[in-house]
């Protein structure tokens, strides 16, 4: 049985625009480049006094008996901003999205949309567009009727419905498919229709829950590109995008909220979170970084230049993500593609032993064990096997020129 799509109340429409603006008092913060600036983060962190957040989540908690599915989530999404909720299975991402959509009632906390408290409103009063992973189209309705569903429910005049349906289908490249039934479409096409249906009601807020996960890899990549285009076409829409796939989060999100065990663990602008992860969990989850055991040489402040740590057989310059004391245990964040291979006796390299190689097409993944007391595993991606010794042989691993980020150990977070 397909889920019932969100049917909006009748908000003020802005003629000629696909999207309603909650308020025009202040331009929405939006970074042109998610990989980019801290400025965007600072702008996005506060929606500003003149404009309440498009999505406001405060202390949101959802419990099922003894299971806490979501624990005190605080998150604000500005108009025009995309925030990805990223985390492993069971971390509470979908629960957060369902609570914002109104599909479940939180145990505690508040949800506001453009400042309006909707915590106790049913889904069809919230005016939100929702897309879930398995399309959830009505099988007995043609594509155009599926897309028109929310508009008809809000009694939009017939001619206007036709125009808005055509516009929404056009946005997702499905203008020619209005008379088909969902069963006559591929999975990717069905998901495009589901997106058109969510957009047809011109929502100021769009919630996407793993919208690409039911598609095969090639289609996923295509549709990801189309979502990026759609994002650009909808500059005023606030988007919450639930995914466990870091590629989607990196490609689409202005900011990423990393979830773990029902809690928000880290939240920052996409580029900064990737480059300077504050915790070992985020470093490993976002970019599959190696976490090399390190010991801080002397007291240092966060970001302090000149900080050093001992790693394996080396003492290296590091970029501390927070203040550390001398002799603190910490972890050095080293992404596999930033490491290079050298002779084991070359100066300034980590000594290790090669234990595996795996051809991945564009790169080879080398697995090595560091010459340290615990034999830490290090993954290293190289473009060729030139200079790589045979399995079991000693190998040198060179760190990147720029200091690697130093994060606390799990125990220290
Ligand atoms: N109806 C329910 N009854 C009991 N527990 C639930 C219910 N729905 C979710 N949970 C539990 O709440 C936790 C969070 O679930 P949620 O679906 O939000 O995770 P998720 O991060 O979206 O995972 P996935 O990526 O697998 O969808 C999980 O431990 C899950 O088992």
Automatic annotation (TrEMBL):
For this protein, the record's SUPFAM superfamilies field holds: MOP-like, P-loop containing nucleoside triphosphate hydrolases
Question: InterPro entries recorded for this chain?
Answer: AAA+_ATPase, ABC_SmlMolc_Importer, ABC_transporter-like_ATP-bd, ABC_transporter-like_CS, Mo/tungstate-bd_C_term_dom, P-loop_NTPase
Region Disordered, residue ranges: 1-49
Q: What keywords are assigned to this protein? A: ATP-binding, Nucleotide-binding, Transport
Could you cite one Gene Ontology molecular function of this protein? ATP binding
For this protein, the record's Pfam families field holds: ABC_tran (PF00005)
Residue ranges annotated as compositionally biased, kind Low complexity, are 1-10, 28-49
In what residue span(s) does the ABC transporter domain sit?
55-286
What PANTHER family does the database record attribute to this sequence? SPERMIDINE/PUTRESCINE IMPORT ATP-BINDING PROTEIN POTA, SPERMIDINE_PUTRESCINE IMPORT ATP-BINDING PROTEIN POTA
Record-given protein name: ABC transporter ATP-binding protein
According to its UniProt entry, this protein's organism is Yinghuangia aomiensis
């Amino acid at each position: 049985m397909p889920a019932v799509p969100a049917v909006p109340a009748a908000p003020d429409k802005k003629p000629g625009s696909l999207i309603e603006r909650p308020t025009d008092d202040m331009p929405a913060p939006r970074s042109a480049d998610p990989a980019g600036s801290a400025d965007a983060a600072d702008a996005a962190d506060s929606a500003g006094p003149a404009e309440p957040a498009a999505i406001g989540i405060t202390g949101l908690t959802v419990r099922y008996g003894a299971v806490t599915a979501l624990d005190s989530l605080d998150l604000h999404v500005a108009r025009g901003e995309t925030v990805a909720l990223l985390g492993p299975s069971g971390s509470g991402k979908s629960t957060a999205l369902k609570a914002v959509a109104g599909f479940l009632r939180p145990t505690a906390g508040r949800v506001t949309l453009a400042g309006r408290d909707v915590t106790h409103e049913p889904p069809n009063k919230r005016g939100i567009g929702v897309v879930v992973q398995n399309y959830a189209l009505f099988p007995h309705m043609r594509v155009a009727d599926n897309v028109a569903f929310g508009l008809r429910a809000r009694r939009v005049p017939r001619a206007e419905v036709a125009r808005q349906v055509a516009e929404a289908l056009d946005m997702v490249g499905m203008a020619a498919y209005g008379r088909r039934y969902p069963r006559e479409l591929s999975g990717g096409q069905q998901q495009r229709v589901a997106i058109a249906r969510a957009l047809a009601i011109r929502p100021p807020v769009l919630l996407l829950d793993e919208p690409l996960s039911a598609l095969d890899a090639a289609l996923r990549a295509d549709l990801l590109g189309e979502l990026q285009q759609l994002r650009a076409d909808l500059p005023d829409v606030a988007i919450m995008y639930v995914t466990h796939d870091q590629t989607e989060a990196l490609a689409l999100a202005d900011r990423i909220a990393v979830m773990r065990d029902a809690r928000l663990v880290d939240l920052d602008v996409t580029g900064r979170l990737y480059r300077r992860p504050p915790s070992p969990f985020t470093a490993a989850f976002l970019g599959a970084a190696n976490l090399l055991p390190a010991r801080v040489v002397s007291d240092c402040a966060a970001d302090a230049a000149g900080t050093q740590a001992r790693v394996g057989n080396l003492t290296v310059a590091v970029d501390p993500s927070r203040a550390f004391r001398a002799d603190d245990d910490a972890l050095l964040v080293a992404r596999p593609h930033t490491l290079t291979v050298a002779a084991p006796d070359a100066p300034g390299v980590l000594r290790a032993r090669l234990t595996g190689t795996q051809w991945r097409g564009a790169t080879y993944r080398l697995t090595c064990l560091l010459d340290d007391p615990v034999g830490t595993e290090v993954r290293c991606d190289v473009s060729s096997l030139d200079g790589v010794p045979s399995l079991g042989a000693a190998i040198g691993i060179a760190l990147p020129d720029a200091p690697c980020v130093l994060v606390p150990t799990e125990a220290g977070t």
